[in-house]
Amino acid sequence: MPEPLIEPPPPAPQPDRAAADDVLSAVLGAIRLSGSVQFCFMPSGAWRTDAAPSLAALGGGPGGAMPFHIVAQGACWLKIAGRTVELVAGDMVAFPFATGHQLGAGRDGRLVTPVKDLPPRPWRTIPVMRYGAGEAAEGGDVRLLCGYLEFAAAGFRPLRDALPDMLHMRTSDDDLAWLRTIVAQIVSEVDRPHAGGVSMLERLTEIAFIELLRRHVRATPKGATGWLAAMTDPVLGRSLAVIHADPRRDWTGPALAAACGLSRSALAERFETVLATSPMRYLREWRLCLASVALATTRQPIAEVAHEAGYGTEAAFSRAFSRAYDLPPAAWRARAIPGPPRPA
């Protein structure tokens, strides 16, 4: 039988979910969530909160303080940026940019200010704020677990640009039975405090937030641009995985392209189309993000942080860091780690 004169076209590249998982794992592994502060909020009757909760009252750190709410019982509404979302038991919402929002139940309810009413810290147990005890609510008693997480990765521009003002997850979905168990355990840790409970709450909340991010990644529509789309792109997903696997390597444009099995021009064009940046600029931004975490969480000399970020001099690093984070490295460290001045 004669061979066909025209070969069939190769199959279209498929989204590389493994690469996407590698990139997200690398980002969250390098920059963990931390500093969880939580309190229990139990309003009754008709009520509403202030539209601009104060992170300062919770002790939020420099940039990346992300408020969240978990609906442990009942239902309420949430208003943000001109839209209203109905929340029910098991829902979790997080606000990557600390966007002002309002919670409430019923109409024309009393104004309550749980953040301002919190007792002074430190807390031996999770504070419980009650309002309108005994008043009937339209949707039954409401119980909210509120707080914030320090999410340093929000300083990474490609990720920041890809996130919405609110992440919302409904654990009543059929495929989230395991997460309902996590939420139930969070409630149990609040109700029955044990030794190590604060650390347990931090880890449980971190797991829930990671699932929030994963579901947001999966929901990225075909043909979209930006960091989330790049992670599932068959070409860029592998490229990003290579960068995040070894960000401190002395990469060059040709070396990075070779590691991804592409020409330098093809890789650059793909980055520009989907991420509106170049491979080397992406690498620089990620290194600066890692540097911001090192400055905020370690006593590592700034000169060493600069070297690990790929800068030949501390002065060059300081200029680049200041452009990216609006503060020089020493000022960033001083704001993140209050206390006596530390040697540079």
Write up this protein:
The chain has 344 residues and is α+β, with helices and mostly antiparallel strands. The chain has two domains: 31-218, Jelly Rolls; 235-336, Orthogonal Bundle (Arc Repressor Mutant, subunit A). 40% of the residues lie in helices and 18% in strands. It has helices spanning 17-30, 157-162, 177-191, 197-218, 227-232, 236-245, 253-260, 264-275, 279-297, 302-308, 314-325, 329-336, and strands at residues 34-43, 47-49, 65-73, 75-80, 83-88, 91-94, 102-105, 110-112, 128-131, 143-150, 167-170. The protein is globular. The N and C termini lie far apart (76 Å). 34% of the residues are buried. Residues 1-16 and 340-344 have low confidence and may be disordered.
Task: Spell out the blueprint of helices and strands.
Layout (H helix, E strand, L loop, with lengths): L16 H14 L3 E10 L3 E3 L15 E9 L1 E6 L2 E6 L2 E4 L7 E4 L4 E3 L15 E4 L11 E8 L6 H6 L4 E4 L6 H15 L5 H22 L8 H6 L3 H10 L7 H8 L3 H12 L3 H19 L4 H7 L5 H12 L3 H8 L8
Parallel strand pairs: 1-9, 2-8
Antiparallel strand pairs: 1-10, 2-7, 3-6, 3-10, 4-5, 4-7, 6-11
Helix pairs in contact: 1-6, 3-4, 6-7, 9-10, 9-12, 10-11
